Amino acid sequence: xxxxxxxxxxxxxxxxxxxxxxxxxxxxxxxxxxxxxxxxxxxxxxxxxxxxxxxxxxxxxxxxxxxxxxxxxxxxxxxxxxxxxxxxxxxxxxxxxxxxxxxxxxxxxxxxxxxxxxxxxxxxxxxxxxxxxxxxxxxxxxxxxxxxxxxxxxxxxxxxxxxxxxxxxxxxxxxxxxxxxxxxxxxxxxxxxxxxxxxxxxxxxxxxxxxxxxxxxxxxxxxxxxxxxxxxxxxxxxxxxxxxxxxxxxxxxxxxxxxxxxxxxxxxxxxxxxxxxxxxxxxxxxxxxxxxxxxxxxxxxxxxxxxxxxxxxxxxxxxxxxxxxxxxxxxxxxxxxxxxxxxxxxxxxxxxxxxxxxxxxxxxxxxxxxxxxxxxxxxxxxxxxxxxxxxxxxxxxxxxxxxxxxxxxxxxxxxxxxxxxxxxxxxxxxxxxxxxxxxxxxxxxxxxxxxxxxxxxxxxxxxxxxxxxxxxxxxxxxxxxxxxxxxxxxxxxxxxxxxxxxxxxxxxxxxxxxxxxxxxxxxxxxxxxxxxxxxxxxxxxxxxxxxxxxxxxxxxxxxxxxxxxxxxxxxxxxxxxxxxxxxxxxxxxxxxxxxxxxxxxxxxxxxxxxxxxxxxxxxxxxxxxxxxxxxxxxxxxxxxxxxxxxxxxxxxxxxxxxxxxxxxxxxxxxxxxxxxxxxxxxxxxxxxxxxxxxxxxxxxxxxxxxxxxxxxxxxxxxxxxxxxxxxxxxxxxxxxxxxxxxxxxxxxxxxxxxxxxxxxxxxxxxxxxxxxxxxxxxxxxxxxxxx
Length: 787
Hints:
Elements: H1 3-33, H2 40-44, E1 52-55, E2 61-65, E3 69-70, H3 80-90, H4 102-114, H5 126-134, H6 147-169, H7 172-182, E4 189-190, H8 192-200, H9 209-218, H10 231-247, H11 253-259, H12 279-289, H13 302-314, H14 320-323, E5 340-343, H15 347-373, H16 387-400, H17 402-409, H18 414-420, E6 425-430, E7 437-442, H19 444-452, E8 456-462, E9 469-473, E10 491-492, H20 498-507, E11 515-517, E12 523-525, E13 528-530, E14 544-546, H21 547-552, H22 556-566, H23 568-577, E15 596-597, H24 599-606, E16 614-616, E17 621-625, E18 631-634, E19 639-641, H25 645-661, H26 666-669, E20 678-683, E21 689-696, E22 699-706, H27 717-720, H28 722-725, H29 727-738, E23 759-761, E24 768-769, E25 778-780
Parallel strand pairs: 1-5, 3-4
Antiparallel strand pairs: 1-2, 5-17, 6-7, 8-9, 8-22, 10-15, 11-14, 12-13, 14-24, 16-19, 17-18, 20-21, 21-22, 23-25
Helix pairs in contact: 3-9, 3-10, 5-6, 5-7, 9-10, 15-29, 20-22, 20-23, 20-25
């Protein structure tokens, strides 16, 4: 044997020995590496971050809690076109391989890697893409030569093994369903349902073939093929998908020819945390469900602590996420667990409420306020506000800003931070225009003043007897104004507080037609005397008027008279019975509404009147289900009798006068609202707050409008009163509700008199006896009426 042949034998001998040993080592390493491959148990329960759905009473998913905007769709709900488009474009041999398409890998190796033909696409199957989406691997990063490539190979091997496990564990239909529910389509849309709603405002089952092709075309490169960002590239990609569908016989030539020239028609509605119906309601619900057991040290006012403690003990929804755990012992997560929360919101009324707020502020009120701003020397603050007060307000606003907090955390000095607030900066700010914003350059200090110049609003509508919240708006635009003025904010209530005083009077035996002398009434305050300022016309001072006239015209004199009869402590007690839980200082000025309360409290308290004297706690949610439809919780209305049925009906009569002849009469002549309506306007000191709360036999709703700060307000009473600031929102909303035949609320609804009611009330809100007549026009036919 010659030397060359011996060398060759030795060469192969050592290669075989070393190769075998190396193979054994590699296999041992693979065992250690692949130990992190998902087990079959993990495959049964992949972490898909399902969005929690908020469902309205009329069956609409109107908003979600999510990290990834994803909602699950079953195979039966998927249109065949979207499956066909996915298979023909992403994995033509999907139904013929077992998770890995070796023919496809060979194609990629030869045509893509060797011939540099990128049109051939990648070699990952739908199952591999699903494996990568459900069980993402760490990113391959390393500065050591060759390590990054090794990690890529290892990740690919893991992906292959996971894909094979998926194929062994699930049917093809289940795999394609999971795939379409998990992939990212861009614009914060995860899964086919979120994508269909985002780009076409449709359920997946309603998508056309060309719309399915458009969505599937985005999967490869969600930004490049996004029809909003790149319409031409998206159209080209969609047509490529259609061509693939034709190639693999999913559509006929004739169908392809008929739809390939159809343009992409979008109904784009980005589903982010700032969009969707009821964003303020969604955030309020999150706060409610995330609440922890109250601690006294966390509260300034004892009454607020008592109110929240009562909620913790009696309301199962309050703190639900901290009171309930999943079967595995962990807490529920609103952003990941795919819960179905059935709310009391009516999506139609919610839409009308948001439209009403926007229409009034955008088209009318803000324009009027901007007209006044021209004449303010320290805009947006009124001219009568001291400079020191303005600086306090501005200083507070700066300290609450993200800029201040971030610079403070980074170690910037106070002087550096303050200097930055005077440096011009490019920014996007809110604007009442078609886009809802404007890109501009201004200093952060100017941006604070700019935002404070916008009037804010809050609106809540409840259903009498059930307390179900039908609509909830906490501000003019959630994207730019996150603060919830409906429940978090408390503002001076003004004359909207007077009905509580009149309710006390009716409960104690007064009637709407009882007469009193209209003169100022004074109260001793320590070593001084306080007399509420009269707002009545001179011709009525000293005359005898009915109580109905007093409330119809919001007379401070008549309210003061009633306060003298009962005192502030009795008034506070009545408010407690009707659901007011916030701190109320028992002082005489309560008769003209000196206290600060939320729209949420005020509307729920007013709701006692059309609920026939029964206080009904507002109900936000009726039930919660898990992602599989299993019932987790039911919620019911909590009620208690607050006042008599007769008292509530007398208040209806009193407050109808406000609408028919008093400060709210424009509901009739301007907004054309017919039928039985009752309510009360409210205006506070310096016109800082405008209120209107009203009710029909089937709906109670309340509105507040004002500036972020009380120093920002109208200077003109005609513009700054509640009938101009707040009432129009109520009127526009009710117009929309009445005009919707699908909502069973209308002008033919009637307030129901108590059983055995025999009282005849012949007075109106215009009654004022100029001859000082003292006889009552309330005829009590049944002597035991109050029994």
